[in-house]
Amino acid sequence: MADIVKEFDDYRSKMNDKILADNNKIIKRIFNLDTNAYTKGALDLKTKELLGLVASAVLRCDDCVKYHLETSYKLGLTKEEVVEALSIATLVGGTIVIPHLRRAYEFWDALESQNK
Questions:
Q1: Which long-range contacts (CB under 8 A, 24 or more apart) does 43-49 make?
Q2: Would you call 7 exposed, middle or buried from its count of C-beta atoms within 10 A (0-12, 13-18, 19+)?
Q3: pLDDT for 93-103, tens place per residue?
Q4: What is the pLDDT of residues 33-67, one digit of tens each?
Q5: pLDDT recorded at residue 115
Q6: Is 115 helix (H, G, I), strand (E, B) or coil?
Q7: Any idea which fold 3-114 has?
Q8: Where are the domains of the chain?
Q9: Distance of alpha carbon 81 from alpha carbon 83, whole angstroms
């Protein structure tokens, strides 16, 4: 199951490299803004990741959800914390978020199985 994590990471890295190699100033600035938005500020990193996770789930972006799950996992967030955030996302987004919730659970399980 951890293969889905590796596949996601490899694809994301490969495509980000390809996109950034085009040297488009606007795209590079957007990538930079995204990176800088998730640095420590008035909000701590874990809170920012949970906010990103909730927004991503509500917007139904599976790649974004996976990215924020992986970062949350690396920051030491617990499954209970992540599930609570996902429950808020499902409440706000409605039942249309449930398929993304399923994939989020699958990806979190894959993250956890990497270290077993």
A1: 45/75, 46/72, 46/75, 46/76, 46/77, 46/81, 49/75, 49/77
A2: exposed
A3: 999 999 999 99
A4: 999 999 999 999 999 999 999 999 999 999 999 99
A5: 74
A6: coil
A7: AhpD-like (1.20.1290)
A8: 3-114
A9: 6
